[in-house]
Design brief:
InterPro entries: SporV_AA, SporV_AA_N_sf
Helix content: 40-55%
Order of helices and strands: EEEHEHEEHEEHHHH
Protein name: Stage V sporulation protein AA
Number of strands: 8
Largest sheet: 3 strands, mixed
Shape: elongated
Distance between the termini: 58 Å
Radius of gyration: 29 Å
Keywords: Membrane, Transmembrane, Transmembrane helix
Structural class: alpha/beta
Oligomer: single chain
Amino acid sequence: MTHSPAPTVAPIVYLRLRSRVRMIQGQDLHLGDVAQLLTNPEWEKDLLELVLKRPQHQDGNLILIDMLQIIAKIRDHIPGVVVESLGKPHVLVELVEKPRKPSKILFVLVWVLLFFGSALTIMNFHADVSMMEVQVRIVEMITGRKDEHPYLFQIAYSIGIGFGMIVFFNHLFKKNWNEEPTPLEVEMYLYQENVDQYVVAEEYEKMARLQTKDKKP
């Protein structure tokens, strides 16, 4: 009695795309750059080095890589493979130039602009709410005498503003007091999410227009 050979089991690749990645212009885009994967050890290294795209100048600085494109590349590379997708169905790739050494002159210029801009903003706010009169009145209520120039109170108040900003933004130079994100980081994250959603929608529309154009006789 002859035994039929056991059917070969198709390899399974579990794939999860990153939401957004950066890469240097002029480099090939590999699967390992945009995704995390789990598969048989003999396939893993080969798949991580699989070239998905060679960015061209006309592609711009943002490229949308769709899960369907990745699955097609993987199936061309490994016929019969089963791809299990986890997470988002696309990834945005931002092409950036090679990092340059930061300019000290530009740093000083930006620092001076931010310093004086913040100082003017605080002074204009205090002028609008008549902070000077309020401070004079507070000192008079505490000490019992009127002082037109309560410097000691104003110095303490100024130090309190600086300390309050450090506590509020949870950041002093490169040091964070805890792992909680600062309000500025949260706003930047929300802004980046909205920008990414807009770019993704625009890229999908471009892809749909190209497919429609190609189908026309």
